[in-house]
Amino acid sequence: MKILTSTQIKECANQSIQSEITTSLELMESSALACFEWLKSRYSNEHNYYIFCGKGNNGGDGLALARLLYNENFNVEAFIIQSSADFSEDTQINFDKFPKSVYFIEGDDFEVTEEKAIIIDALFGTGLNKKLKGEAEKIVSKLNEINAIKISIDIPSGLFADSLPEENQIVFRADETLTFEFYKRSFLHLEAAQYAGKIHVLDIGLDKNLIENEKTDNYLIEYSHFEKNYKRRNPFSNKGNFGKAIIIGGSYGKIGSITLSTLSALRVGTGLVFTGAPEYGSLVLQTIAPEAMFFSCGDKYIEDIQIPFENYTIGIGPGLGTEATTKMAFEKMLENENNPMVLDADALNIISENKDLLNLIPKYSIITPHPKEFERLFGKTNSTLEQCELARKKAKEYEIVIVIKGHNTAILLPEGTCYYNATGNAGMAKGGSGDVLTGIITGLLAQGYDSKLATILGVYIHGKAGDYAYEKFSQESMTAQGIIQCLSDVFLELNK
Ligand SMILES: NC(=O)C1=CN([C@@H]2O[C@H](COP(=O)(O)OP(=O)(O)OC[C@H]3O[C@@H](n4cnc5c(N)ncnc54)[C@H](OP(=O)(O)O)[C@@H]3O)[C@@H](O)[C@H]2O)[C@H](O)CC1
Ligand SMILES: [K+]
Question: Are residues 194 and 256 both part of a single domain?
């Protein structure tokens, strides 16, 4: 899915109107109708709906929704922010059409009975042009204190679509956001995501050809990406058709990480998986992952990386350690390898201590830092949005794929495009999840997916398996091994 800026979204709506595909009033009605259908499918008319509206078109969506709810016998009260601004044209029409009297409110002079309350935030949408202050700030602060189900229309009031809020900025805190046609970019960054809650993208009938023509460098990965690009296995194939993945890493006390990567590479369909680790890891690996083959890279640490065959894809880093001998072996390996590989964890820590190594990374390799590892590699930034933009620059500069792992993992490609992922959950914020991702991406790269697809599909699959693990084990009890177990659910769904 394309991620467009608020200006581009407005442009799409304007063009739809100018080309007479629709009118602005019809668009408002279809936005309200989409919200109404969504609400009706989830909440009964036992709830009391409190709809807070601004005077712009976001408020108009709220007033049209209030009418639709009222007409179907839902309990609705509409509140309108008292301000010097006039209603927008379509909002005025929807204000006039609402059959019940409304409350004009200033600051915190309104009451909400918490029991069975659903608060709908239609104060400000993508037309917000400055931070909230004065009356608007007071209203939103009071709403945030109320214990009720909270739903924002299009975007939580006080949040911008294309930039992130400052630390103490007042923003409506929604449990769910019903957003129109597109994810707003800010939803994909932690600083703003915490206000938006669960995102639901509703189709309001904007012309899909116009959307197609809008240019962007930011996308959201969707199931269709996976479905369209995943190569189904040819029934006449053999293990030689599905590549050789070499997983290198592990050190005393960290044989677990490399085992998790090995198991993950196996579970995404790789033909042959080899694990290179210190000798004492052999027994553990051969017991837990008997399908993989082991080769020794040293007695105590990784001291020498001698890969015993050709045509392979390397994933290196989990549990690798940063011993002096390991650093030397790693550097030598980088000098000798030309094919794209996956670099994670200690492989990145070694590089961050000697930045010249960045130039040795084979083109189109994939690095998978978490935000702290990224900072050690490329420097500090003031927000995750700035970090994402720095990663875009670095991905271009070194011709590598950068995966910034986090709440919404961001993938930056060498050509400058960003793909965000929305699968996954907080149960994955545990040791071992990253090792699983390394194994998945290495396994896909080994099977012949190019770096871009191996990463996009890998990150998506990883999060999706995490979501299945959540359903099966709970966020608390799920582990990295649970994620690996649930990889099969992702493929079973695909092959249904
Ligand atoms: N584009 C689409 O596809 C559709 C969008 N819809 C909905 O419309 C909103 C965007 O509506 P817009 O009228 O452009 O803007 P808003 O309603 O978000 O806000 C404009 C009013 O808010 C005032 N404003 C702005 N910032 C502040 C602030 N910090 N404090 C107080 N007041 C503020 C502004 O007043 P000004 O005097 O500053 O101009 C306006 O009164 C979109 O989000 C969707 O919900 C359509 O309904 C369907 C198609
Ligand atoms: K809103």
Answer: no
* Choice from 128, 172, 211 to test ligand 1 binding pocket (greatest atom count within 8 A of CB): 128
In angstroms, the Cα distances linking 366 to 147, 259, 316, 398, 429 are 45, 20, 11, 11, 21
- This model of the complex carries an ipTM of 0.97
Identify which ligand lies nearest to the alpha carbon of 58: 1
Q: What spacing in Å lies between the alpha carbon of 155 and ligand 2's midpoint?
A: 5
Q: Residue 271: left (phi > 0), alpha (psi -120 to 50), or beta?
A: alpha
The number of the ligand nearest the C-alpha atom of 52 reads 2
Please tell me the residue having the least CA distance from ligand 1 atom 44: 58
Q: Are residues 404 and 420 in the same domain?
A: yes
Residue 140 in any domain: the answer is: yes
Q: Which domain holds residue 86?
A: 6-216
Q: In 393-481, at which residue ranges do the beta strands (DSSP E only) sit?
A: 401-404, 410-412, 418-420
Question: Is residue 144 domain-shared with residue 276, that is, in the same domain?
Answer: no
Same domain, 246 and 179: no
Structural domain contains residue 381: yes
Looking up residue 125, the CATH number of its domain turns out to be 3.40.50.10260
Q: What is the pLDDT of residues 321-347, one digit of tens each?
A: 999 999 999 999 999 999 999 999 999
Q: Tell me if 329 sits within 8 A of 250, measured CB to CB.
A: no
The model carries a pTM of 0.95
* Domain-located, residue 30: yes
Ligand 1 pocket residues where CB is under 6 Å: 9-10, 13, 27-28, 31, 54-61, 85, 88, 124-130, 132, 136, 153-154, 180, 206
